[in-house]
Amino acid sequence: MIRFFIPAALMAAVMSAIYLLPPLNEAESAMDMKIEPFIGAWETRTYPPSELEINILAKDTEFSKAHCFRRRLEEMSIIDGVPVDRIDLSIVLSGHDLATSIHRPERCMPAQGHRSIQGFKDELELGDGKKIPVMRLLSKQGIGYGPPEDRQFITRDCLTYYFFVGEHDITRDHTKRTLIDIKDRVLHGKAQRWAYISATMAFSDSEEREFGGPPNFEMADRKIRQLLRELADSNIAWDQINS
Question: Which residue, 20, 85, 224, 237, has most beta carbons within 10 Å?
Fold first, then answer.
């Protein structure tokens, strides 16, 4: 019991000491927050953060969010037209406060209707051989529709990828990100602004996928990874990142 209490007490002491340090220099993330109108073959439509996101995170937190669309030309139909894939992309830039800036998405996903969340460690390989450590989440999301007095719900399967980009580091681990931040604040007198990048896509887990309907898991996985590769290539200042 004491063995587990001591590390927790030390961590609490270090966290408390951070707020006694002199003013810190701010270090920007290597991640560019701007979402261009096109990311590779994906067309983007930006939208503002929700009121819940604004209220729950620190005031100096910044947001870039977009719905990303790509026509599925291989399933074009004279009758139904061209089905369109959609990925929800979010980049959140932390503020000064460690505790209220950004956190693991597993913590806030239930408020967005996600249940049965399962996490898996993974890597995203870029075209030049670089690899990004990422977390891959599977969840079931309840979507409400209709008037309040007759609210109906549907459940969809969702695939989410996320990772964090600091001044010199990329990690999928929120605890590791926090420890890097504490070290930089204590030893180097600087507060990093970390960018949290996530991408979510709904998919069908049916063995016989409906023509023109949501992609199956393998398709969704391939499409999200392709979008994130394009984003990482264009938005990360790789000359800043530790090899």
Answer: 224
